[in-house]
Amino acid sequence: MAWQDDALCAQTDPEVFFPEKGISTAPAKGVCLACSCRAACLEFALEHGEDHGVWGGLDARQRQAIRRNRAALRVAS
After folding, report:
1. Three-state DSSP state, 55
2. Distance CA 69, CA 4 (A)
3. b/e per residue, 18-49, with b = 16+ CB within 10 A?
4. Cβ–Cβ under 8 Å, residues 52 and 60
5. CB 3 within 8 A of CB 32
6. Which of 18, 28, 47, 58 could bridge across to 53 with cysteines, CB 3.0–4.6 Å?
7. How many CB atoms lie within 10 A of CB 8?
8. CA angle at residue 26 from 20 to 27, to 5 degrees?
């Protein structure tokens, strides 16, 4: 996972990416928007079932929606 060495989150307080319930994910998503590793990070989270925090600029609900859509596409094919 060489991408992790270059990811902007490695230079940021991890708590930003795992906010407590009710705390905005906007600061983490802002870091992700500027990160060149965003796609690799998101794919890692999707492949490994990460269900907490912000990964690749998406929160847990957004990643769950992608997983559901991918599963539906596999069933449809």
Report:
1. strand
2. 26
3. ebeeeeebebbbebbeebebbebbbebbbeee
4. yes
5. no
6. 18
7. 16
8. 85
pLDDT tens for each residue of 9-42: 999 999 999 999 999 999 999 999 999 999 999 9
Per DSSP, the residues of 11-51 read GS-GGGGSPPTTS-SHHHHHHHHT-TTHHHHHHHHHHTT--
Query: Hunting for tokens 């060149």 — which residue is that?
Result: 36
pTM > 0.85: yes or no:
yes
φ and ψ of 18, to 5 deg? -130, 60
Tokens of 75: 């069933």
Residue labelled with tokens 């957004």: 62
